[in-house]
User: Fold this.
Amino acid sequence: MNTRIYNARVLTMDGDTNIIENGEVLVRGNTILYAGSKEGAIEYLQNSTDTIMWNREIDANGNLVMPGFKNAHTHSGMTFLRSAADDMKLDDWLTQQIFPREALLTPDDVYIATKLAILEYLTSGVTAVCEMYLMPEVIAKAMEESGMRCVQCGGMNNFSQSLELQRKWFKELNKENSLTSYRLGLHAEYTTSKELLEQTAALAKELKAPVYLHNSETEAEVKGCKDRYNGLTPTEALDEMGMFEYGGTFFHGVHVTDHDMEIMKKHNIAVVTNPASNAKLASGIAPIEKYLKEGITLGIGTDGPASNNCLDMFREMFLVTGLAKLRENDASAVDAAEVLKMAAVGGAHAMGLTDCDSLKSGKKADLIMLDMHAPNMQPINNIVKNVVYSGSKSNVLMTMIDGKILYEKGEFNIGEDPEKIYSEVQAIIDRMR
Ligand SMILES: [Zn+2]
Assistant:
């Protein structure tokens, strides 16, 4: 599939957030050939040694074409729990409502619940997700069949998954030229014994792999760790075990110290912030302004649909900046361009992806088109600020992943009827009532 998109406003996010008016994006197969001005596209094609036949030539009508958003932390299979339990204390919510129902899940359940999440990602302009959930083989199948790019990470703890399984998945779920990949990971310090944490650190060294985990999400978690490890924070305790020799990514990173940030910088650890989940579960506000000043790589995630409850990157982007401004008591904190970079570029890097972070020759064709002919996008004073402050998923006209258009003007192209997916996910939660 070769696609030419013309008459577009192009935001390449290749080093800046400047808008190219009347631009073009040329895609051959799954790769971007060119992204930039109309004149540059003409020159590119004139200098090209072979003639490209376009399967689609899309008149963007002045709409915005930009790299897709990366949902850098989610639990897709939890869609069946959306709005099944809310407005509860975090501990009660987890132990009384979430864990008992998850224990009843079959592979078919996880497969179809993941597909429901994929539909929602596409409507929100998400072109890659970082996934932590049960049954990684099933999730890889659902993602690949649908055409969604996905980096999975282990969610091991004392009760679920194991080092042996992680070793197996690391070997079997990392294939050449695949949309999906697998990273070493654990649920969190507070759910994992010291022995298992130390063994994970040893496995990370053996595999020369970064480690992904929930870290410092709540004050109680950090206090518990200090009690267990002679006053060390989770970041300090895990660093002492040698967990981050090959880096890693922290999900949440809400309650961290200056020394934690020093450790993150030393080991090139990225942070994925989940503002909606942190707000709804009353966990706190992450120090995004400080992370930016320290040069720490930042991504944005929705967390799972049981705690959020939606998988909407526009809402997350607004919350990242809105909550940062409140936390710092400073309306100039964390500006829109920084937030957009986190959502499209930083998230990719936090997931270990470098080939789908911007619109540039040779990068993977993971891109979205946003409607500029909508009341909430007019007038055009500053498009980047419009996207972050007034944009919404209703503005997503098209989502392309790996060169394939999977969502266009309300229609899905993932090989399955959405209504069938809705009714099958409904049946899961009905069965558990
Ligand atoms: Zn999570």
Observations:
- Residues 2-67+363-412 form a domain with the Urease, subunit C; domain 1 fold (CATH 2.30.40.10).
- The pocket of zinc ion is lined by residues 73, 75, 214, 251, 303-304 (CB under 6 Å).
- The chain has a mean pLDDT of 97.
